[in-house]
Thioredoxin reductase
Amino acid sequence: MTATHSTRMLILGSGPAGLSAAIYGARAGLAPIVVQGIQPGGQLMTTTDVENYPGFREVIQGPWLMQEMQAQAEHVGAQMMWDTIVEIDVSQRPFRLVGDGGTVYTGDTLVIATGAQARWLGLDSEELLKGKGVSACATCDGFFFRGKKVAVIGGGNTAVEEALYLTNHSHDVTLIHRRDSLRAEKILQQRLFANERITMAWNKEVVRFIGGGQPEGLVAIELKDTVTGELSMLEVDGGFVAIGHHPATELFRGHIALDDDGYIQVEKGTTNTSVPGVFACGDVMDKHYRQAITAAGTGCMAALDAERFLAAADFETVAQAAE
């Protein structure tokens, strides 16, 4: 017999956004169920040093932070489910979702916090040196490269913005792009070319990231000229892959309004989606900031928006019954 779990607040995703929503929802007495997805804890589970999350004077570990957030959510009454949703129906309330094992989840409200994944180059050396000099977030990790040589890989807005940001920490930033022109907005390009700390490496693609030292970390990037095929070596301490992000929204396509980049559209200043009673928070709706603290903040917003939605719906039901 198929198991069914019902709740006033159903949350998809268990990163900072989803767990923050769970904490606030549980404290409001909504007994939220969190379906954790294929990566419980979100991207912070693959992050080592975290130095920019408020409340900790010393560097903390990403997995530890997520374990503590989950423990807090469970302590106040949230229920965690190890499952991955493969089917949704948000055409009517309660919303109905189905896990990959057939388990059915229904929720009077739905909070989507499925996040977004950074796009990587797909190199074996990249995987080996992630967190050891290779990163996909300059605002997260740039502080660790103060006074060191760094490189950014990409040619769009994200790459240019990250290169500009890194000049706050490094006097030597190289932007590596496989073509001879950038896709970024003209105003960003103007700022980039005017910055003396940034050097362009045109028509270059990354062949491999090279590690060394004790403990092992990134020491150089091997490049291939896309025109001549010539190989070269760029000595750097940090490499930032900035070729975009992919929001985890395929499940919602055709059910909830998405923007041109696939992110869930929300009403400005809220977490309200195109479907009343469905809310989105964290990186699945935020293409600009992508920080743990901003994800947690929007998770709080989603829970409050859901609570207010339910209060209004309950009032309307009582009023109709009294007529």
